[in-house]
């Protein structure tokens, strides 16, 4: 009986991790035959878990949505992550979930083992959140987008770009990226036939799921790096390319991922792409870095640096 119960818990955990499973895949994971999987699925259904059968030669299963929310299985690290996330949700960039986060946290902490509760309390006690003022997005919008990414469904929405009038878009969503201040959607734009980055707070209508699509090769191995490259300069009036004589990690630590893209050349040199609304702001950033650098683009930046150097020399000469 204990072995059967443990197997049911493992089966439930697998169904929660991935959307669709075939019978043979589950049987292989649990080291049983397909007939045993069918019996275990029937037991889960009798306990209130909405497991649906999928058509096909080998058959399959999916944990769907039922009339009530069944218990979820979380390992220790997942439980701590959820608790910490709920505690910080009120200070985040997702609007409208503050009260529900408190209610969910109360329920979770009531059943947390003491060892996990101490971990959560220690992490919270020694963490000081820095409240960032910026645009917020609705939780419902994020869940719709995340579900479309998971299920490979196209999305339709109206997007208000930084320049131009709002326009309807049809995209194949790849994933969401959070920079700490803003949410970005990486998606294949069907009309542009290219990868695009969309600020979620600029989506002015609720995204609507459309037809399913075959997933494409993502634009980068790490979507965060792709967003950094896209946002670092494309939205700014002046765009610069520089060689900085410092390790890439050192430059990244003194830069914002939404305004600077850093690519290592070797252990002591990196290629930096950045942007700014004015040349003075760009110069301020370069001086703030504190490293030697060479300007490749734009020529206006080189000319502006030469003007500033002359101005500083004159200031020193006058003072002398």
Would you give an account of this structure?
The protein is α+β, with helices and mostly antiparallel strands. Helix content is 43%, strand content 25%. The strands form 4 sheets. A 5-stranded antiparallel β-sheet has the order 9-8-7-6-10. Strands 12-13-11-14 form a 4-stranded antiparallel β-sheet. Strand 12 and strand 13 form a beta hairpin. It is elongated, with a radius of gyration of 26 Å.
Summarize the structure.
This protein has helices spanning 2-17, 23-30, 34-46, 76-88, 98-111, 114-125, 139-151, 223-234, 248-253, 279-289, 299-319, and strands spanning 20-22, 51-54, 60-63, 94-95, 137-138, 153-159, 167-178, 183-189, 194-199, 208-212, 238-244, 260-266, 269-276, 293-297.
**Order of strands side by side in the largest beta sheet?**
9-8-7-6-10
Specify Rg, calculated over alpha carbons.
26 Å
Straight-line distance between termini = 91 Å
Q: Low-confidence runs (pLDDT<50, min 5 residues)?
A: none
What is the string of helix and strand elements? HEHHEEHEHHEHEEEEEHEHEEHEH
Strand content: 15-25%
Number of strands: 14
Basic shape: elongated
DSSP helix count? 11
Mean pLDDT: 82
- SS-based class: alpha+beta
Largest sheet: 5 strands, antiparallel
Helix amount? 40-55%
